[in-house]
Amino acid sequence: MAASNVAFARSMARFVLLLSLSIDAFHLPSPRTAAIRPLQQHSQHRNTQRSPRRNPFALRSTLADTVISAGVSIDTFLPQFFWLPMIAFPRAELTKRVNGNLLPVLACSLVHAVVVLLAATDDFPRGIEPIFIFADVFDPTQSQLDAMRRLFELRNFVAEEWPHVLIWDLFVGRLIWLDGVNRNIVCWHSLLLTNFIGPPGLLLHAATSALSGKGLPTLGGVAEDAS
């Protein structure tokens, strides 16, 4: 009996040993797998080190955004160099030479045209989204203020609209300056207000012109000695 128990114990020990060896063999990689795995790891490492492939459309969008931002900055600050002499030195020869023609306004307008073109074509068709929102702006059954608020949530629309406002203010300011110089009307205060908030400056010039006894502004003359 004791001998049979010993034999059974030995048989169980052999079975457990074989089972454990089989489990270990199942988890260990085969020689072929062991040889391939380092190559796979090396390939993955090379792929992670390799620089990502650049998307040409992403590069174009980044370049367009850079040009748009630069254009907005130019149209923000460049007009101030034309405002300053009209306000501070309205009758100076240099002021008449610089602002006596439309070149300053046209230069700013050209920059604005580039901004508009890039803003409309950047990330197409999202770039033309403002066109469809404009339908709501001019829909009398909807709130025009809410529609405009939606427009100003679009970055590229702001990029177009801000220079738009500044350039038209400069255009009207130049007309006010021309009228003031040609009809000898004080206009520095009207120009200053026009540069700040636009149309109220024109109203101020009209009031100044009327109170001076010279009638309403003509806004169509040419500065004296302007070239």
Please tell me about this protein's structure.
By secondary structure, the chain is mainly alpha-helical. The chain is flat and about 55 Å long. It is 76% helix and 0% strand.
Element-by-element helix/strand order: HHHHHHHHHH
- Helical/strand content category: mainly alpha
Whole-number mean pLDDT: 79
| Count of alpha/pi helices | 10
Task: State the low-pLDDT regions, or none.
Answer: 4-9, 15-36
Which key phrases capture this entry?
mainly alpha, single chain, 0% strand, signal, 227 residues, flat, 10 helices, ABA4-like
Which secondary structure elements does this structure contain, and how are they paired or packed?
Layout: H1 2-27, H2 31-49, H3 56-88, H4 93-99, H5 103-121, H6 129-137, H7 144-151, H8 155-182, H9 188-197, H10 199-211
Helix pairs in contact: 3-5, 3-8, 3-9, 5-8, 6-7, 8-9, 8-10, 9-10
Protein name: EXPERA domain-containing protein
Organism: Aureococcus anophagefferens (Harmful bloom alga)
Keywords: Signal
What is the gist of this entry?
This protein has 227 residues and is mostly helical. The chain contains 10 helices and no strands. It is flat.
